[in-house]
Amino acid sequence: MFQIRTDLALEARELYQEEKQQEIPGVAVEQEELEDITVTRVEILDDHGAEAMGKSKGKYITLECVGLRRADADLKDQVSKTLAKELRKLISVNKPLKVLVVGLGNIDVTPDALGPKAVSKLFVTRHMFKFYNKDSDEALAELSAIAPGVMGTTGIETGEIIKGIVSNVKPDLVVAIDALASRKMERVNTTIQLSTSGIHPGSGVGNKRQALDEKNLGVPVIAIGVPTVVDAATLTNDTIQLVIKAFSKQAKVGSQFYNMLLELKDEEKYHMIKEVLEPYSANVMVTPKEVDDVILNLSQIIANAINIALHPGIDLKDVNRYLH
Length: 324
Prior knowledge:
Layout: H1 9-20, E1 27-34, E2 37-44, H2 47-53, E3 58-64, H3 73-90, E4 98-103, H4 114-119, H5 126-131, E5 142-146, H6 151-154, H7 158-169, E6 173-181, E7 191-195, H8 214-217, E8 221-231, H9 232-250, H10 256-263, H11 266-277, E9 285-286, H12 291-310, H13 316-322
Parallel strand pairs: 4-5, 4-6, 6-8
Antiparallel strand pairs: 1-2, 2-3, 3-7, 7-8, 8-9
Helix pairs in contact: 3-12, 9-11
EC number: 3.4.24.78
GO molecular function: metalloendopeptidase activity
Subunit structure: Homotetramer.
């Protein structure tokens, strides 16, 4: 299977299906259609499935909602509640929670600022637990948060920073938020992925660093990501595919031109485009022009979902009334 850049398990499955024309052995898939939201649950069960998908074993839950790019208050609340519900399903700790939320990314680069902006909207409580010398609370989790920045500005691997914090704070769970990359422009800023397999900081722009996962940190890690960028070769590939479909509708079925269009493989198109773009340094990362508003909305949705999923005594009414 050729490597079109994507961080979404949903898209890795699609690529395999397009190549092999079958489902992936060792991978379980379930899809649920809700109002305005499609939820796809992919679980990689064994090493064969992990190798075929190019992903680690674990659960991957994807929420797709086209309206996210221009979401109104009601839709944002709906997505937040759905995301919170799915997040609760992934949390396996059956005791008062100590949670560290990590906002990955560069706050000075808008498409990469999702993580830092989301943690700035969280209801952090660890300091209150320490001040009142409490071990647990019926209404609140012991929640701490950090936006560690990027290695280009700190000179330190993000994984090293988080490992040091985990060793001191000793959370039961780490939740990491980061920007991702998609293979399709239609999923950029309209898709949220949850996973239990951890995350590589910088993966959205192709700079994979030390993994934040249970193996490296010693505690379970849930990753929350949104594809905010797509590379130019992938975008051009999608555009050519649309042009081919438009031309093929006008060509006579059975004609030589029509057959040629049908036989043109995605792999051939993608690598041809990449070869054309790279000498001119034109295979850049692309994001929609309304990315400022979208990142603000998405960070709000993710923060709301974490607040109501982790704090038993907080609901959306509390979040919207007191925290913003």
